[in-house]
Each structure stands twice: as C-alpha cells, then as structure tokens.
From TrEMBL, chain A:
This is Ferritin-like protein. It comes from Pedobacter duraquae. Pfam families: Ferritin_2 (PF13668).
Automatic annotation (TrEMBL), chain B:
InterPro entries: Ferritin-like_SF, TAT_signal. It comes from the Bacteria. This is Ferritin-like protein. The lineage of its organism: Bacteria, Pseudomonadati, Bacteroidota, Sphingobacteriia, Sphingobacteriales. Pfam families: Ferritin_2. It comes from Pedobacter duraquae.
Length: 280, 237
C-alpha cells in the first residue's frame, strides 16, 4: 500500500491533513521513510491510531491556544534579544569566538521555536501573535545590555531561567495533551540547556565566581534588578516534604533548592517581561 | 541478563542510532500517544527481544503510581551512578569537576528520596545496578555515561509527562526535568564546548528536545539495572 497516496487523497478533501497529523509537514513526509521499519501488518493499525489521535486533538481549547500564544510571544522576544546580541559590535574584544558560536546556536533555537509554534497555531486555525517592539533596557534598568558583554550574558541568563519557569508554569494547563504538552516539555528542556550554558559561560568568563549551571537558592548572581525572576527558587519543600536532609541523607538546603526548578504563573511572567515591552 | 552484558555497548549505541536516525518516529509516537500503535511500532523498530522488561520482575504499577515508580527507578540509577563517581572520582579529577559531581550527586539523591517518600508503601524496592561497563577511573567513561544518563532522563520525563493524570505530579516532574537538562548541558560542555544542545538531542528543524516512551527508556536503562523491571501495567496513553 502506498501511504503517501492515501494521504494525498485525503488532502484533496482535507487540505490540512498533514498539519492535523503533524504541524511539521516535512517531518510528516519523512515519517514514511521510517515506515519501512514498521512491520507491514502493523501499518494500518498505526496509521489508524495516528488519525484518530490527530483529529481528536485538532481543535485545541482556548486555554491551550492561550498557552501556545503566550509561549510564542516569549520566543519572539528571546529571538530578537539574541539576534541583537549576536550582531552587537560593542562586544568586540570581549566576545570570544566560542561564545559567539553559542549565542548563535541559541538564537537559532529560538528562531526554530518561533517557527514551530507558529506552525502549530496556524495548523489549529489560529493567527499566531507577532513580534513587538522591545525595550531591551527594561525601562532603563539595563542601560548597557548591548554595550557591555557581562551585562548581556547576565540578562540572557535571567531570560533563559525565566523562560524555563514560564513553560513550567504553563504545563499544567496542557495536562494529558500528548501533542501540546509533549511539545511544550520538549521546548522547556531546551531552554534549561540554554540557561545552564549561559550560566557556565559566565563562570568561565569570570563574570561571576559563584554562578553554577543550576540555580542555587534565589541567588541569581545577576544583581537585584532581576530578583523577581528568581523569587521562590530557594524553596526546599516539595510535595509537602522537606528536601533538606530528607530521609537522613546529606542533602543541604542549597542542594535541595538546586534540585528543583520552580514554576512561575503566566501572570507573574507577564509582569516580569512587561518592562521589556513584551505584551500578550 | 547474562548475554546482555556483553551486548551492552553495542545495544546502547544501537538504541541511540535507531532513535537518532529517525527523529520523525519520535514525533510520530507523540501523535499515536504511544498507544497500541506505538507499541506495534516499538516492536517493529526494536525487533530484537531485549528482555529488559518482563512480567515477573519488580512491578512498577499502573497509572500515576506506575509513572512515579518509573521515575523513581531512573533516579535510583542516576543517584547510584553519581554516588560512585563522588566516592571514587576518576583519575586526575580537578576540584571544580569534583564539586560539580558532588552537587549532581545530591540533586539525584534528593530526587530519589522525594519519589521514595511520596510513593510510600507503593514504592518499588531499591534496585540493584550493574555498572560493569563503566570504568570509574576514566574521565571519558564517566562523562560519556553521565551524558547518556542525563539525556536519557530528560527524554524520559519529556515523554512521560502527558501520561500523568495529576497536575501536582506533572508539576513535580517539570521541576525535576529542567534540572536534569541543566546537568545534561553541563556534562556536555565539559566533554565538548558548545555541545550543550547539539543535534544529538535537539532536532535541527524545530529545536525540540527528545521524548522517549517508558519502554524505550527502559530498554536503554535496563542495561545498567540488574533487577528485572515489570513495566507492563504502565499507562500508554
């Protein structure tokens, strides 16, 4: 049987079939190369289940759309931040080639997150939110973000750590949504990888002597201006249990706080990014 | 388990290449919700009978308890590994790296103990690990294993999130997975700068991290766990 033909036939009736199955059309087409690995007998079963799932989830609720738009607005902002930071001439001499490579990698990830979320929203028949005009000084709080490399990386760290908190805070809205929750989680952990990398860069560059790849207490190592972005990260209670010294182990309060990243509600995130001109 | 040991490196690599070569299968699995079709696919894609999960081993249980026990099993594995690394550091380890490994050790212990306490009488027993394939005196061996475990952990939490019914547990898993991702990025950086989120783990088109089903994860992790694990009651959708 030729699966591509079947899908093409369906596409004549339902133009969005590929998007329903997978917002990433290219990935969907590529799937069929994997089909070779699937035992022939299981193919119709697999395809049937796939359709059932895709159509069942083809109309996301307003709450889900809200989360997707919220995420997209944040990704637009992050992308714009890294585009500017990558190109910034003011960093010359303090901007090691390897660091610039890292910023380029992160910028490209944010760009791809933007495209991915736009695709998911478009596939769901929604109009994706567009980028805003951003104020990277946050109303004058960071006047030299793009003139001073340590400041740039400090702000980048705060943005990444806050991005992690934002996705985490939105996740419960997507509970049991195999497609949307999994996609959000797959972005969330990438943001955490970015955060760890930026933090480690700051340490290696000597911008901070105490910064770790993980968040220790609420010591954000970037200054009081972003204290709100780290408020609550210091907690040592999880699910009603005190993690410090849990079950007689040597887990310190610092380790207890580092072991768990904390969420922020969309309202909290909205308030934190508003000075940067990010609106929803 | 006897012939697993000798096949370990090959199998780990094989599992890796199957998954890496077909990222699309991962996205496909998301759409099937890893339901019956997912299992059919898995069976086809992993044709060799690996026997990592059985119906007579330690039963993880069903529903959210099953998923929490699954996470508990993985955290037991990670904690045991880092406890060994911290106790017998690799040759010529520097102070900074030792400090990081001690940090990570306590993070994994914290995760393990949280699951143990949260599960209470539903918790699976302590698992017996098999680290015979790891050379703890070798930095390369330890870092390669750490990288594999951390990336695997990230994909495990990412892939199991939607199976949870409790928003509290989902929130808890979310708090842990980003810390695992921080570990993964750090380990990757000390192996090779700027590999923190390369295409081994983050797809080039959408910049999404990996997700794996519990069965996929256990097939890989099982090489390091001596205790038989029965995942047959885990939710699949």
């Amino acid at each position: 049987m030729n699966i591509i033909n079947i899908l093409d036939e369906i596409e004549k009736v339902d133009a969005d079939v590929y998007d329903r199955l997978n917002p990433r059309r290219a990935a969907m087409k590529d799937f069929f190369s994997v089909g070779k690995k699937v035992a022939a007998a299981s193919v119709p079963f697999a395809i049937g289940a796939m359709f059932k799932k895709a159509y069942a989830q083809s109309a996301p609720s307003d709450a889900i759309v809200g989360v997707l738009q919220f995420a997209l607005a944040l990704e637009h902002f992050e992308y714009a931040f890294y585009v500017r930071g990558f190109n910034e001439a003011g960093f010359n001499g303090t901007y090691a080639a390897a660091d610039k490579t890292a910023i380029g990698i992160i910028r490209d990830h944010e760009a791809n997150h933007v495209k991915f979320l736009q695709g998911v929203l478009t596939g769901a028949g929604k109009t994706p939110v567009t980028p805003k005009t951003y104020d990277f000084t946050a109303g004058g709080t960071f006047p030299n973000t793009f003139a001073n490399y340590p400041t740039f990386l400090a702000v980048a760290q705060a943005l990444e750590d806050t991005g992690v908190r934002a996705y985490k805070g939105a996740a419960p809205t997507l509970i049991r949504q195999s497609v949307y929750l999994t996609a959000a989680l797959n972005i969330h952990s990438v943001e955490a990888r970015h955060a760890a990398k930026i933090r480690y860069m700051r340490l290696l560059n000597g911008h901070s002597t105490t910064v770790k790849p993980w968040i220790s207490g609420n010591d954000n190592t970037t200054g009081t201006a972003v204290a709100g972005n780290y408020a609550g990260e210091e907690i040592v209670m999880q699910a009603g249990l005190n993690i410090t010294g849990i079950n007689g182990t040597g887990v310190t309060a610092a380790a207890a706080s580092e072991s768990f990243d904390e969420p922020l509600t969309p309202e909290q995130v909205t308030a934190l990014v508003k000075p940067f001109g990010v609106t929803f | 388990m006897k012939n697993l040991k000798q096949e370990e490196p090959e199998m780990l690599q094989q599992s890796g290449s199957i998954l890496d070569a077909s990222l699309r299968r991962r996205s496909f699995l998301q759409y099937t919700g890893a339901g019956a079709a997912g299992i059919a696919l898995l069976a086809a894609g992993c044709s060799k009978d690996r026997g990592f999960t059985s119906t007579d081993g330690v039963n993880l249980g069903s529903d959210d308890i099953g998923i929490l026990n699954y996470a508990y099993a993985l955290e037991q594995l990670e904690a045991a590994f880092y406890i060994q690394v911290a106790a017998t550091p690799y040759t010529n380890i520097n102070a900074a790296e030792l400090a990081y490994f001690k940090d990570i050790q306590f993070h994994e212990i914290a995760h393990r103990e949280l699951f143990k306490s949260a599960l209470g009488t539903s918790a699976i027993p302590s698992l017996e690990v098999n680290f015979s394939a790891i050379n703890f005196t070798s930095r390369d061996s330890v870092l390669a294993t750490a990288k594999a475990f951390e990336d695997l952990g990230v994909s495990a939490y990412n892939g199991a999130g939607y199976l949870l019914k409790s928003a509290t547990y989902l929130g808890l898993a979310g708090k842990i997975v980003s810390v695992e991702a921080r570990h993964a990025a750090f380990i990757r950086e000390i192996i090779s700068p700027n590999s923190f989120s390369n295409t081994e783990v983050v797809d080039a088109t959408n910049a999404l991290d990996k997700s794996r089903t519990p069965l996929e994860v256990l097939a890989i992790a099982g090489a390091y766990i001596k205790t038989k694990i029965n995942a047959s009651n885990l939710p699949t959708s």
